[in-house]
Amino acid sequence: MTLPLPSVMLVDDHPLFRQGLRMMLSSSNMLQADIHEAGSVTDAVAQEHWVNLVMLDISMPGCDGLEGIEQIRKRWPGAYVVMLSGHDHPELMRDAVRQGASGFISKALEPEAICAQVQHWLLRSQGLAQTVAGKAGSACLAPAQSPNAEVLPLRQYEVLKMLAKGFSNKAIAKHFGLSEHTIRNQVASILKHLGADTRTQAVLVAQRNGILPATAIK
Question: What average pLDDT does this structure show over 71-82?
Answer without folding.
Answer: 92
